[in-house]
Amino acid sequence: SLSQYVAMLFLLRRFRKNKALMKFDFAGIKNDLIRLTVKLGSPAALSMILYSMRNVMLNSIGLRFGGTVSVSALAILNSVGGVFDAFNTGVGAVALMLASVFVGERDFESLRLLLRSTLKIGLLLAAAKVAVIAVFGKGIVLMFGAEGDIVDEAFGLLLCYGLNMPVNILMQTLIPPYQSLGRVKYLNVIYIFAAFIIPVGFCLLACPIIGTKAIWLCYFVADFLCLVILTVHSMRKRGHFPRSAEDWLVIEDDFSDGVKLNI
Asked: Model-level pTM?
C-alpha cells in the first residue's frame, strides 16, 4: 500500500504541471464522459470480480475433493500463473490499446493487421510457455517448497494450464476489439460465462466423476467454450464459419465508409 501511495504522489506531481501534454483539468470532467468511461470499463471490472469469485469456488471445490494437497497446488498455480499470464495479458493490453485507436479512426485494414500480428506473436509465446512448463515444470514447483504428492499434483495442474495458453491467446486477441467497438453487453455475457459459470459449473459436474483433474481442465474448457460462443455468434450474423477478421468481429460492411485519409 505504501509503495502505491508513493507512486501516486510522483504521478500527481507530473500531471499537475501546466507544461505537461496531459494534465489534470477539472473543467474537463463531463457527465457524458464519465458514463462512457464506466460503460467501456465495466467488462474489465466485472471480469476481475468474477475471477476472484471463481478462485474462491475452485479452492472450496479443491478442498472438498482433493484436500489440502489440491489447495496447495492451486496456490502454486496462482503464484506461477502471474508470471506466465503476464505474456497473455500483455498481448491483450496491446490489442486493446491499438484496437481503440483503429476503431476510432474507422481503420479496418490496420485492425485486421493488428489481429494477425497479435495472434501470431501470442501463439509463439504460448508455445514457448508450454515448452518451458513441460521441461522445467517440476523444478518450478519445487522452488515453492512443495513435497510429496503436492509436487505431482501441482505439476499436472501446470501442464493442463499450459496447454490452455494457445486457446487463451485467441480470447485475448479477439475480445479487446469488442470492448473498443462498445459491445459491452455482449462482452459482459462472455465474461460471465468464461470467468465463472463455465469453470465452476464444469468442476461441480466433473469433480465427482474424475476428481480434481476437473479443476486442472476447467481453464481450458472455459476458454474453448467461449471461443465456440464467439464462433456461433459470428455464424449467426454472417451465415458461415468465420474465415476472416471481419467475420470474427462481426464488423459492418460500411465500417470504413467516409474515411478519406489512411496512413
From this structure: 0.77
User: How far, in Å, CA of 133 to CA of 87, rounded?
Assistant: 14
Spatial CB neighbours of 119, under 8 Å, sequence gap ≥ 6:
169, 170, 173
- Residue 212: all three cell numbers together: 480434481
Q: How many residues does the chain have?
A: 263
Q: What are phi and psi of 144, to 5 degrees?
A: -90, 10
**256: Cβ–Cβ under 8 A, 6 or more apart, which residues?**
106, 107, 108, 109
Between 50 and 175, whose confidence is greater? 50
- At residue 72, the pLDDT reads 86
Within 10 angstroms of residue 121's Cβ, the number of other Cβ atoms is: 16
Contact 95, 53 (CB under 8 A): no
Q: What is the pLDDT of residue 29?
A: 82
Read off the pLDDT of residues 1-42 as tens digits, 9 standing for 90 and up: 999 999 999 888 888 777 777 777 778 788 888 888 888 888
Distance CA 120, CA 163 (A): 17
Give the torsion through C-alpha atoms of 176, 181, 192, 194, to 10 deg: -30
* Helices 213-238, 149-163: crossing angle, 10 deg rounding: 10
- 260 phi and psi angles, rounded to 5 deg: -100, -25
